[in-house]
Give the backbone structure.
Amino acid sequence: MKIGIDVGSTAIKIVFSADNQMIWKKAVPTRPEQPALVNELIQQGLDDCCLLKKDIKTLCTTGYGRNLINGSSRVVDEITANAAGIHQLTSGRARTLINIGGQDVKIIKLSDTGRILDFKMNDKCAAGTGRFFEIVAKILDTPLNEFSFESSDEPVNINSICAVFAESEIVSLLAQGIDKHRIIKGVNNSVARRIANLTGHADLDEDVYVDGGPALNQGLIESLENELLYDIKKVQDPQFTVAWGTLFC
Amino acid sequence: MTPNTVNKRLQQLQHKTKHQICIEFEDQVELIRQQPDYISEIEPFLNVLKYSLHPCEFQQQINSTMVMALCIQAPLELFHAARVRIFKLACGSFAARNMATRSLPALTCPMIKSSTGMLQSQNNFDLNRQYMVFPTTCDWVVKWRELTGMDKRQTHYMDLPHLRENEQSSNKWLEELYSLKKWLEAIVKKSITRKDIFKAIKAYMDAFRIFSKLIELRRQQRISSVHFAVITNALTYDNIENWTACTGRYILYPFHEKKESIPIFLAGSPIIFPNVKLLTLIEASSMRVAADDICSMERVFPGPACYEDKSEYALMRALSHRYHRACICPTFADNERRLNGMVNVLKNGKIKGVIFHVLKGCHPYDIESVIMENKLKTLGYRFLKIETDYVKEDEQNIVTRLEAFRQTLKQIKKQS
């Protein structure tokens, strides 16, 4: 049995694999004492799968906290892990991957063999990232899983490109009595625009996939499709791609 | 607030900033000393660099006139010929920026902000009594005097022609060199003779010869890029003969080839000590800067001045040509030479990847990065742009990109 762990900036994702099948997975918010938290998760996974520590053949780590975890048999950067993960999960169909992480966005171009041809990553800025959605969710008092919904309401324009200014803009919109669903749509569009800017509106090789926690938000996927003018695909558990990829690097 | 309170507060801020600058410098020096590749031959350069953060102390120890220059476009040989000591106004201290935030726009180039703050942190330092040369390269340099409110009486501008591949521009730049010569003569109240210029050119040629060996050592991956940056950064704060002697001693050390690291080419905005963050992170990511075209590092010398005869005109023409045609500053409109030079080094050094460093707010290099990225990728090279400033908080973000970049270079190596 193999374990892949993505110690991200906002969430820790862990996957167990046996015979190249994901047999267990879990994502929890990142908090201090990450090594202890990881150990707890591993134990929880072992208990759930009725396995013992001696059954662990490989333990691979990635993410911002990758170097904090003891006992790793392989430590890889998250771009490499992400590329490997999406290549494996899509049977090599992914040529462009948009990863929306907790505090960064990455655009990765892949070859048909899963090789990284090029990548881009945003600088230190929360705009367009998972953290931005978290801030918005808090202001709107709406859990993130309610950001995907069917609605014919017109989105509002969120013009601020800075997460901090966007926060005040949203507060101001709420004060004007604007419906929160229109604001959520506006936020999705705003994030999609930021991501499209990072791609430079360049031609993307298809298939184009999106992953990371925010990829669970179908509203964002639709906004991205409108902005990029590509069909955007996602894998079943998009927040676990990076952790899964550590096992294939 | 009364003028007294304002003055007192300013003095406190100066004292605090200067103290932080010293700590920052000492911390970086200590880090270098703790590295396994530390050798005592690097100490003279670290000692010289200490003065780069304290122009008052620099002035006290040189025993001649100090002339500051915002950019290395002004020929170092002419300052040497005039027997003045150049002080390159380029600061890499994060702490120094605090002083300058009061007088500069928020998105100012970090190097300009840091240099301004470093000067403002000096106690009893009257900027208006300093001699200063401004080659008109980037907009920050051009507008710096006005931004700081410096009196223009002791300043000299060198009007740099940004189109250079024509005779008219070459002649214009030569005129600028003659104008600088005249200005320096007025400062020292003495003529700069043909012999003075010849001796200066010779001194810098001797230095360049030794420097070429240092470059070769780095190509062979025997010395670290942090050491290389320390040595090259020290050039514009040291007496050239002393710098040559110290570099000569440094290269005699029996360095061993360092294994398990992937060579890369570093381009872009200057790396100024003590901010060697990017170099340290590159090396921590198992890559090694084998070559660069950074104006504070490998391009600190534009190369040897080649004169046709020893007449004053020929010597001045040679200097003018070298500092104009060979310069790779991104402010030039016709910069094909830069790309050609880079590709040449990449081919000869079997280097497959280019890391392009952009200091946030350094617009010319930001613009140039797009041009270079397109051209280099078309030629099959891997390209990574790192936009950063003097803060340390983005190190993890940079490391992630560097490690992934190394992976892409490793894949190329495997394929070949």
Notes: The helical segments of chain A are 34-48, 78-89, 130-140, 163-175, 180-199, 218-228, 241-245. The longest helix of chain A spans residues 180-199.
